[in-house]
């Protein structure tokens, strides 16, 4: 009986290892595909935002009656469309090839016992590169931008200066939130893709900024309180955003600190027991 259990255990272990190896091999293609097709992704994003802008303008509760009021409707969606592109290209320009290898002088992820690696040693390590769990983060960052934009388009109508004052303030606050966070989440994506050592810190900073933005919106909109129905929906939306950020932090923060792949790729260190 005991020998049978050992055989079953070994077979299960082999299956798990084989599955993990296949998953790692498949995930290694994700960053290559993303980088190879970024121009198509950006073109598709721009086209999607153009269609969304057209639809929102046509269905606006405050139809434009001049060039100025039309521009007021279009500008928020133009900024939303431009923010991720600006984030990616700014990050790429800020961290040119070679700069991504410079390690920060101080360590913030202090859990665990680690052994430093030089750049050559890190690149030779099997865990080096934006595959595996990092590929999941890359896809998650892009989906986060897409989902938040979809939520914004559903929850917030296109409004111009003809709208009530509370509506104008709400449009301003929600647009600023989406533009700023889409920008920073795309900066995180670019840094993760290029192996920039500051990526884990930037992602944590963006999470904290996200939380702060939700609190700031609630305070900002309260200056000109909206109707009770709108206020209730806004509280639900902001609360949902806070919950999603906290859930992301609970799931990914331990991985950012303890994952071997993230430590080898971005911190150039491996477990001391390796």
Summarize the structure.
By secondary structure, the protein is mostly helical. It is built from ten helices and two strands; from the N terminus they run H-H-H-H-E-H-H-H-H-H-H-E.
Protein architecture, described:
Keywords: Membrane, Transmembrane, Transmembrane helix. This is DUF2569 domain-containing protein. The chain crosses the membrane at residues 41-58, 70-91, 127-147, 167-190, 202-221, 241-259. It comes from Pontixanthobacter luteolus. The structure is a single chain. The longest helix has 31 residues, at 228-258. Helix 3 runs antiparallel to helix 4 and helix 6 packs antiparallel against helix 7 (165-194). Helix content is 74%, strand content 2%. The two termini are 35 Å apart. It has one domain. A two-stranded antiparallel sheet has the order 1-2. It has 274 residues and is an all-alpha fold.
Descriptive keywords:
10 helices, 274 residues, two-stranded antiparallel sheet, 2 strands, 2% strand, mainly alpha
Number of domains: 1
Average pLDDT for all residues: 86
Any idea what the shape is? elongated
Strand content: under 5%
Rg, Cα atoms, Å? 23 Å
Count the E strands. Answer: 2
Poorly predicted residue ranges: none
Helix content: over 70%
Strand ordering within the main sheet: 1-2
Summarize the biggest pleated sheet. Answer: 2 strands, antiparallel
């Amino acid at each position: 009986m005991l020998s049978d259990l050992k055989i079953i255990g070994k077979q299960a272990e082999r299956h798990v290892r084989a599955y993990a190896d296949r998953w790692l091999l498949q995930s290694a293609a994700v960053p290559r595909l993303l980088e190879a097709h970024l121009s198509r992704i950006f073109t598709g994003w721009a086209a999607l935002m153009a269609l969304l802008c057209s639809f929102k303008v046509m269905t606006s509760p405050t139809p434009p009656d001049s060039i100025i009021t039309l521009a007021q409707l279009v500008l928020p969606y133009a900024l939303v469309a431009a923010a991720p592109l600006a984030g990616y290209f700014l990050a790429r320009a800020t961290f040119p090839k070679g700069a991504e290898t410079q390690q920060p002088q101080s360590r913030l992820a202090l859990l665990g016992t680690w052994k430093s690696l030089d750049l050559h040693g890190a690149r030779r390590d099997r865990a080096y590169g934006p595959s595996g769990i990092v590929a999941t983060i890359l896809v998650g960052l892009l989906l986060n931008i897409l989902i938040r934009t979809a939520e914004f388009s559903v929850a917030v109508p296109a409004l111009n200066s003809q709208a009530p004052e509370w509506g104008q303030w709400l449009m301003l606050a929600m647009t600023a939130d989406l533009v700023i966070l889409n920008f920073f989440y795309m900066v995180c994506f670019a840094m993760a893709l290029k192996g920039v050592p500051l990526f884990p810190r930037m992602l944590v900073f963006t999470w904290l900024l996200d939380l702060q933005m939700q609190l700031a919106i609630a305070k900002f909109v309260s200056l000109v309180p909206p109707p009770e129905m709108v206020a209730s929906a806004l509280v639900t939306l902001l609360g949902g955003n806070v919950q999603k950020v906290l859930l992301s932090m609970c799931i990914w923060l331990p991985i950012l600190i303890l994952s071997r792949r993230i430590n080898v790729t971005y911190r150039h260190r491996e477990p001391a027991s390796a």
